[in-house]
Write a structure and sequence with these properties.
Largest sheet: 4 strands, mixed
Order of helices and strands: EEEHEEHHEHHHHHH
Number of helices: 9
CATH topology of one domain: Butyryl-CoA Dehydrogenase, subunit A, domain 3
Radius of gyration: 32 Å
Strand order of the largest sheet: 1-2-4-3
Strand content: 5-15%
CATH architecture of one domain: Up-down Bundle
CATH class of one domain: Mainly Alpha
Shape: elongated
Distance between the termini: 13 Å
Length: about 290
């Protein structure tokens, strides 16, 4: 089994002569892949590469990537992003307001760029940072796989419970052909013995419809098919979370029908137990990529 969870955390650190850095990756459940990047000022240029690296490895989950820096001893020089500054003044003119002062400008993200952004040394540092990111991705992927392996055991146990309860339901006396036939004969006798203006053939038809609606054998057959499909998905590689979620919906539908059709207390109890296990299964499946 190669299931992967959607939750995990990883941290990786790197350094060079200009300072040190650290990547932190955090991921929680999500319907699709949602990546949020948080970079220090001047390093927004890494955003596209970070998103590409993460999307190549992960397909689902709300994933946050955070880069932190620790400068070296050498002072750092900055330059002003003239294009962004011109845009700010242009917007101020359009709104007929005074351009912001220096105290406000220092808070504008991306206005002050490190001079190293244009140096060849910066490209080498970017590559080193992305190499550290790759290590963090490996760590996150490993943690998600470990959690997925533990979830696979839990899911297998829940599916085994469903199979056992389904077998109990199939063996229940109320779903046996003899019990259904006896129920039909008893209903015929009650209808035929009652005072009614309906013709006898119509009464027979109505009785047959009522008994047919109470027969849960078809639902149990479909339940068995869904259980085997779930077992097959657990044995697959790749992203199976969405398909398992769909199977849980189908399992829930069949169990609800069994509960509504149950003709005696024992079958009703089995149906409620089935519903409880399906709910537990669905809760765990929501963690699967």
């Amino acid at each position: 089994m190669a299931l992967k969870s959607m939750t995990g955390f990883a941290r990786a650190e790197g350094s060079d002569e200009s300072g040190a850095w650290a990547w932190e990756l955090r991921c929680v459940n999500g319907r699709s892949l949602d990546v949020r990047c948080r970079m220090p000022s001047g390093y927004e240029r890494l955003d596209r590469a970070v998103r590409k690296a993460l999307s190549e490895r992960f397909k689902r989950g709300n994933l946050a990537a955070n880069l932190t820096l620790k400068r070296g001893e050498s002072p750092r020089r900055y330059q002003i992003n003239q294009a962004l500054l011109a845009k700010i003044h242009e917007l101020a003119d359009e709104m007929s307001v005074e351009p912001p002062g220096l105290e406000s400008l220092v808070n504008v993200r991306g206005l002050f760029e490190p001079l190293e952004a244009e140096d060849a040394a910066s490209e080498a540092r970017d590559e080193a940072m992305l190499g550290t990111l790759a290590a963090a991705i490996e760590g996150l992927d490993g943690m998600r796989r470990e959690e997925g392996a533990r979830l696979a055991v839990v899911l297998g146990e829940r599916i085994d419970e469903l199979a056992a309860l389904s077998a109990q339901a199939e063996a229940n006396a109320s779903v046996q052909p003899e019990a259904i036939r006896a129920r039909l004969e008893r209903l015929f006798g009650e209808l035929l013995g009652a005072e009614t203006s309906l013709p006898e053939e119509r009464l027979v038809q109505e009785a047959a419809i009522l008994v047919g609606k109470a027969d849960v054998r078809e639902e149990l057959d479909r339940l068995g098919v869904h259980i085997e499909a779930a077992r097959a998905l657990l044995a697959e590689d790749g992203q199976v979370g969405r398909r398992l979620e769909f199977l849980c919906q189908e399992l829930n539908r069949e169990v609800n029908t069994i509960c509504s059709k149950a003709a005696d207390v024992s079958l009703t109890r089995i149906g409620l137990d089935l519903k409880s296990v399906v709910d537990q299964l669905r809760e765990q499946v929501q963690n699967i990529e």
